[in-house]
Amino acid sequence: MTTDDSSADVVIVGGGPAGRALATRCIARQLTVVVVDPHPRRMWTPTYSAWADELPSWLPGEVIASRIQRPSVWTNGQKTLDRAYCVLNTPSLQLFLCDASMQFRAMSARTLSSTTVVCVDGSQLTGSIVIDARGTDPTVTTAQQTAFGVIVDRALASPILGGNEAWFMDWRRDNGTSDADAPSFLYAVPLDGERVLLEETCLAGRPALGLRELEARLRTRLHNRGCEVPDDAPVERVRFAVEGPRGSSPDGIHRFGGRGGLMHPGTGYSVASSLAEADAVAKAIADGGDPNAALWPRSARAVSALRRVGLNALLTLDSGDVATFFEVFFDLPVEAQRSYLSDRRDASATAKVMAALFRSSPRHVRKTLMRAPFLR
Which residues pair with 237 in a beta bridge? Predict the structure, then answer.
């Protein structure tokens, strides 16, 4: 057993975007940080995206690989959204979130307490505070998002984009399914000036659609639109839980990122909120305050509860009604869309959006939505 113990002001378990964003902002406040991660040098490969207005001011523009000024959606027809959307440059983001003074322990954590991390080799790290930022854990009981995508040249993607900058959601049924099948949508975004990601996505399911099913749907959809993907095209596979633990654990360990409840359960987005909230949590730590209170004021807890009702609604809707639900949502003013998708602290605005959705939905959809607050 090793006795290679060490200490720091902050010990962060998990070296993904959330953990490193928090570490970066703690270091900016002159705190010493150790990040515990079994593979700290592994290159990140997922595609991270965000609405442009969600990103914090401290994030440099170089980490944005592609900016879509007006993405499109297809529900029961086409709509163009007046809100800029960004695809992040994953290698640049990883490089930026790796301050030279950031210390890494290339090890898995075995046990955590509020001030101590014991690694699998028996070594121990202590800090004034321990933060668990290891992301969400998919289980058979948690709602998950799954996706299968291919990366192709822009020219090959042209018939898919159809003159649009990007498809944020395309719910058309040219993927070989009917209204009786669990729905999935096409997500089609330029990764940079040369490449486009074409991805078949199951927004949320308990259980979610399998990757083989999504691959088959994607290839059917692309074939039907005149896009034949080369056999050697790079692929992206996605599976993660869209719900997880909230707030602090019973033993007082603070959580951050997806593990800390920052993932939007109705969209699966968490990177932008983790980047945006890192400063508030770092400030609370530096000031000797409660980072959980900074992250989860009463209004944020209320918004989280409302968003979980929204997830229940998505999971409860009949397959054929999902596109209708999003038709109503994207008919709302862009500020209302922003309130629901991005604002963690305005419970009143979130509730108003949900009430507007309910009022504007067809009667049979309203009957389904009424059951959502009483479901798991």
Answer: 148
Q: How many residues does the chain have?
A: 376
pLDDT at 216: 98
Across the range 52-72, mean pLDDT stands at 97
Query: Do 151 and 229 have their domain in common?
Result: yes
Residue 324 lies in a domain: yes
Q: Provide the pLDDT for residue 3.
A: 40
- For 329-346, write each residue's pLDDT tens digit: 999 999 999 999 999 999
Residue 54 to residue 36: CA distance in whole angstroms: 27
Q: What is the DSSP letter of 244?
A: -
- Domain range for 112: 6-69+87-136+244-296
d(CA 16, CA 145): 18
Split into its structural domains, the chain has a count of: 3
Q: What is the pTM of this model?
A: 0.93
Average pLDDT over all residues of the chain: 92
Residue 81 lies in a domain: no
**Which amino acid, 49?**
S
* Strand 124-132 to 116-119 pairing: antiparallel
36 and 121 assigned to the same domain: yes
Residue 16: which residues within 8 A CB-CB, separation 6 or more? 37, 44, 133, 134, 135, 257
Cβ–Cβ under 8 Å, residues 19 and 133: yes
Same domain, 19 and 122: yes
Residue 352 CB burial class (10 angstroms; 0-12, 13-18, ≥19): middle
CA gap 71, 57 in Å, rounded: 22
